[in-house]
Amino acid sequence: MHVAVGVVVRSDGKILIARRLRHQHMGGCWEFPGGKVEAGESVQQALCRELREEVAIAVRTLEPLVAIRHAYREKTVLLDTWQVTAFSGQAEGREGQEIAWVALRALDQYHFPDANRGIITALKRARPGTAHSARGR
C-alpha cells in the first residue's frame, strides 16, 4: 500500500501528530497525518487531499523527507513522507481523531507504529531547510 505522509511543521517548530482511531489498523497509536495514494494521483496530490480531509489544512509548500517500506504481518506499506513547511488553516481532527503539536525532541514519548520510527529518525537527522537530504529512495 502506497501512503502519502505529511510531517507538518508549524512556525514554532512543533510537529502535528494524530492519534489513530481505535477501529483502525494500529488503533490508538500516534502517526503523522496522511493516507493512501489513489489511482491517477501523484503523491503530492494525495497528501494535499488527505491533509485537507483529515486535519483541515491546505498545503502551500512541501519537500521530500524519506520513503520507508515496512512489512507488517497483515500488509506492507510504503510511507512516502514529505515535510510540509508552509500551510494555511487551523489544524483539527476532522475524523474524530485527537491531534497534538509536539516538539521534535518529545516525539519519542508517543507510541507510533513501527513504520513511523524511520520518519522520526529522518527528522532528527535533517537540518532545518535541508530535509530533502534525508530522503532515501
From TrEMBL:
Domain Nudix hydrolase: 1-126
UniProt superkingdom: Bacteria
Catalytic activity: 8-oxo-dGTP + H2O = 8-oxo-dGMP + diphosphate + H(+); 8-oxo-GTP + H2O = 8-oxo-GMP + diphosphate + H(+)
Enzyme class: hydrolase
Keywords attached to this entry: DNA damage, DNA repair, DNA replication, Hydrolase, Magnesium, Metal-binding, Mutator protein
InterPro entries documented for this protein: Mutator_MutT (IPR003561), MutT-like (IPR047127), MutY_C (IPR029119), Nudix_hydrolase (IPR020476), NUDIX_hydrolase-like_dom_sf (IPR015797), NUDIX_hydrolase_dom (IPR000086)
Record family assignment: Belongs to the Nudix hydrolase family.
Protein name according to UniProt: 8-oxo-dGTP diphosphatase
Protein's gene: mutT
